[in-house]
Design a protein that fits this description.
mainly alpha, single chain, 153 residues, globular
Length: 153
């Protein structure tokens, strides 16, 4: 057990890189999930878009844009959180008001996204779940890459 080293790192204000990476990955996936919910309410049904993407002539920006946006949201969310946690030393007493303001804005944004009416599904439940899990996996890959790039020194 190497608890002495971990306690010294926390006392010095640095977080373990694996902890920073895990938090950044989680935040990036949540950002991708929020964007996925928003796109669904805006009329971009991912299952229909997936079907159009698989068809012979349907490769345009409307088809691939939401998929790239989900990967980009995960990338930016994971990278921003990893950059902030990896570079700002503990304790964050000075940023208390800023943390509360950002938290309140995030809660309001998520409430606004969650309040929107979802579009009716054009495909079966199994296909819808499969496509949403694929989009969530794409967001996780984007978040992992963003966190890894932000943690490189």
């Amino acid at each position: 057990m190497n608890t002495g080293k971990a306690q010294e790192e926390l006392a010095g204000g640095a977080l373990a890189p694996i902890l920073v990476w895990a938090v950044a990955l989680s935040c990036g996936v949540l950002a991708a999930l929020a964007l996925q919910i928003y796109l669904g309410a805006a009329g971009f049904d991912l299952a229909t878009l997936w079907h159009n993407l698989a068809s012979a002539g349907g490769r345009d920006l409307r088809t691939t844009g939401p998929w790239w946006a989900i990967a980009g949201a995960g990338f930016l969310g994971g990278g921003a959180v990893a950059a902030a946690l990896g570079r700002l030393p503990l304790p964050w007493q000075r940023f208390r008001l800023l943390r509360w303001a950002i938290g309140a804005l995030l809660v309001l944004l998520l409430a606004w996204i969650g309040d929107s009416e979802p579009a009716p599904a054009a495909v079966g439940a199994g296909a819808e779940v499969g496509v949403r899990l694929a989009a969530l996996g794409l967001g996780a890959i984007g978040a992992g890459i963003g966190a890894a790039l932000a943690l490189r020194r």
